[in-house]
Amino acid sequence: MRLDVQPWGATMAELVDAARAAEDAGAGVVWAPELHRSAPVTAAALASGTSKVGVGTGVALAFARSAMLTALTAADLGELSGGRFRLGLGTGVARLNQDWHGVAFERPVARMRDTVAIVRAVLAGGDPITHDGVRSINVRGWRRPCPPVRIPIYLAAVGPAMTRLAAEVADGWLGHELLTRPVVKRRPGFDVVASACCSIDPDAATARRRAANVVGFYASVRSYAAMFQAAGFGAVTSAANAALRAGQAADSLGEFVPDEMVDVYTIAGTPGQCAARIATYEEAADAIKLSPPSYGLAADEVRLAQKRLLELVGSHR
């Protein structure tokens, strides 16, 4: 199984250095998320700063950009990376789309299906380029002065409808950071990538506490409340939401998260414990994307956590 890395850096230069260290450790792909930075710009920096490792957006918001602009960006990143780029797309949640980016979120599965179709049509070239749906395109008299290109497309999916769509139209599936166990079957030509916050320390309790804020952040998001409730952690979501409404920072809610909840939703513990947990994904996934804990932590603590994560990746070879 391939070990991928979502590198962290307080600056873009540090982020690129971390990607280069992941490449040296033998990581298969370095993934650029989209929250505090632009995923495509970060991916461009990672591609320029490395030479062998795969580079992907993990994930870019599919609806905050036009599908045509997403396609052109993917084509440019494919060229810039020398063919190492893969386009990871996600819907985000309704509030993020509507309140942060001012874009529609209705019928997200159909909207994502149209997005993938349009991206592929633009990358393939030709004139006209047309598609009718929840998202549509009608381009005539335009030709990209470059050869057609095929970029692998990955879809982030948690719910059953989006998961079925990923299996139907994409080249790969990307799991959620909350260690979503793959619910798509492995098959030739389809890349199943689980994801996890991975917190490693010689002291397992310290590792868990570093990861707790990641779980606490999601516990405060209403979109995940039903999932946590079904797993028996409804009281945690209530406490995290109350603290958030009272003014506590969203990335500092780990105090409400018990160790057993950290163990369910992250990979946290000693190096041996984390390696054993990762090994349980061998049969279910082609790769697992690992990210260091960073929510609510001082920069030096994140750097230490990332160093230990990369040491684990290096030992996997």
UniProtKB/TrEMBL annotation:
Keywords: Monooxygenase, Oxidoreductase
A Pfam match: Bac_luciferase
SUPFAM superfamilies: Bacterial luciferase-like
Entry protein name: Flavin-dependent oxidoreductase, luciferase family (Includes alkanesulfonate monooxygenase SsuD and methylene tetrahydromethanopterin reductase)
Luciferase-like domain sequence ranges: 11-284
Keyword hit for Nucleotidyltransferase: no
GO molecular function: monooxygenase activity; oxidoreductase activity, acting on paired donors, with incorporation or reduction of molecular oxygen
Alphabetized InterPro entries for the sequence: F420-G6PD/mer (IPR050564), Luciferase-like_dom (IPR011251), Luciferase-like_sf (IPR036661)
Lineage: Bacteria, Bacillati, Actinomycetota, Actinomycetes, Micromonosporales
